[in-house]
């Protein structure tokens, strides 16, 4: 089964997944040019899935293929893990833009423009 996940803001999957290459290749999470493979343990079984991405940073589309998925509970568990893997659930729309109105790729608490903007 396959499904698509879209990011609400800018997303650069290659940079997001760069942490898996920090100390060498991670055999549990092989990252390709436009894909990453993982295994999820759910319902006492292992479910392999592959995420491929398309589009630029402002219009990234993640396509997820779950091999051997047999229910909605498996798909929702994979969707939850993909969101965590790519940091989609950590950043809300308010985190993606700063107080001064500039588009920002990180949290306003870490952005110089957001910290220096006067409070409203």
Describe this structure in words.
With 120 residues, this protein is of the alpha+beta class. The protein folds into two domains: 2-89, TATA-Binding Protein (2-Layer Sandwich), CATH 3.30.310; 96-120, no CATH class. It contains four helices and four strands, in the order βαβββααα. The protein has helices spanning 13-16, 72-85, 93-96, 112-116, and strands spanning 2-6, 35-42, 45-54, 61-66. The chain has a four-stranded antiparallel beta sheet, with helices on one face. The radius of gyration is 16 Å and the shape is globular. The relative contact order is 0.19.
**Mean pLDDT, nearest integer?**
79
- CATH homologous superfamily heading of the largest domain: DNA-3-methyladenine glycosylase AlkA, N-terminal domain
Number of helices: 4
Structural class: alpha+beta
Question: Any key phrases for this structure?
Answer:
alpha+beta; 2 domains; 22% helix; 120 residues; TATA-Binding Protein
Write the layout of secondary structure elements.
Blueprint: E1 2-6, H1 13-16, E2 35-42, E3 45-54, E4 61-66, H2 72-85, H3 93-96, H4 112-116
Antiparallel strand pairs: 1-4, 2-3, 3-4
């Amino acid at each position: 089964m396959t499904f698509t996940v879209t990011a609400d803001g800018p997303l650069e999957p290659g940079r997001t997944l760069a942490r898996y290459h920090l100390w060498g290749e991670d055999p549990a999470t092989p990252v390709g040019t436009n894909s990453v493979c993982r295994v999820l343990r759910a319902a006492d079984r292992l479910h392999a899935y592959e995420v491929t991405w398309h589009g630029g940073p402002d219009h990234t589309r993640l396509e997820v293929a779950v091999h051997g998925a047999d229910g909605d509970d498996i798909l929702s568990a994979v969707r939850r893990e993909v969101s965590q893997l790519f940091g989609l659930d950590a950043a809300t729309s308010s985190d993606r833009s700063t107080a001064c109105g500039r588009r920002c790729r990180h949290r306003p608490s870490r952005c110089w423009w957001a910290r220096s903007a006067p409070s409203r």
